[in-house]
């Protein structure tokens, strides 16, 4: 009586870790974390000083009061500066990612695809030329065979 053994937990875990998509995801998370540092440095080192030249570096202090009295924590305050700061950070992050990563990669992949297509086109032309030569050889052999058969039958 041979019973099929279920794979052990360790074997299942090992199979899970060695799948390609898990490794790719782990690499993407690490690269994303490292890239976050770059984006934060750009925002803190370049963008915030530019915004500070116009207004203030810290947009969190901007707010509007909806109630009659807004002193300290009293009243209803709209903290629109925080929303504006988060929105600017998002837009800047998206622009940095697009212009420094997505756009160059898209151009690179388009060039690679064009090169591959050109190589395939050249390969097809060579194959067609070889095919034409083989057809000519076939036709000449058929013609020789036809003339050879005619001589034998005479």
Q: How many strands, which pairing sense, and closed or not: the largest β-sheet?
A: 2 strands, antiparallel
What does the overall shape look like?
A: elongated
Helix percent band = over 70%
Count of alpha and pi helical runs: 3
| Secondary-structure element pattern, one letter each | HHEEH
Biggest sheet: strands side by side, in what order?
1-2
User: Strand-residue fraction?
Assistant: under 5%
Weakly predicted, low-confidence segments:
none
> Which structural class do you get from the secondary structure elements?
mainly alpha
**Ends: how far apart?**
79 Å
What is the total tally of β strands?
2
Report the C-alpha radius of gyration, rounded.
Answer: 35 Å
Mean residue pLDDT: 78
Keywords, separated by commas or semicolons:
77% helix, two-stranded antiparallel sheet, 154 residues, 2 strands, mainly alpha
Topology diagram in text:
Blueprint: H1 9-18, H2 20-54, E1 64-65, E2 77-78, H3 80-153
Antiparallel strand pairs: 1-2
Helix pairs in contact: 2-3
Folded structure, characterized:
With 154 residues, the protein is mainly α. Helices cover 77% and strands 3% of the residues. The chain has a two-stranded antiparallel ribbon with strand order 1-2. α2 (20-54) packs across α3. The protein is elongated, with a radius of gyration of 35 Å. The N and C termini lie far apart (79 Å). The model has no long low-confidence stretch (mean pLDDT 78).
């Amino acid at each position: 009586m041979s019973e099929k053994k279920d794979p052990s937990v360790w074997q299942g875990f090992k199979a899970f870790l060695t799948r390609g998509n898990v490794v790719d995801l782990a690499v993407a998370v690490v690269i994303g974390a490292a890239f976050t540092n770059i984006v934060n440095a750009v925002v803190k080192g370049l963008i915030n000083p530019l915004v500070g030249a116009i207004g203030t570096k810290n947009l969190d202090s901007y707010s509007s009061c909806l109630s009659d009295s807004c002193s300290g924590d009293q009243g209803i305050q709209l903290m629109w500066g925080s929303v504006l700061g988060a929105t600017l950070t998002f837009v800047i992050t998206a622009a940095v990612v697009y212009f420094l990563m997505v756009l160059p990669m898209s151009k690179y992949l388009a060039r690679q695809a064009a090169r591959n297509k050109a190589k395939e086109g050249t390969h097809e032309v060579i194959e067609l030329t070889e095919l034409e030569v083989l057809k000519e050889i076939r036709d000449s052999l058929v013609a020789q065979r036809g003339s050879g058969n005619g001589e034998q039958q005479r």
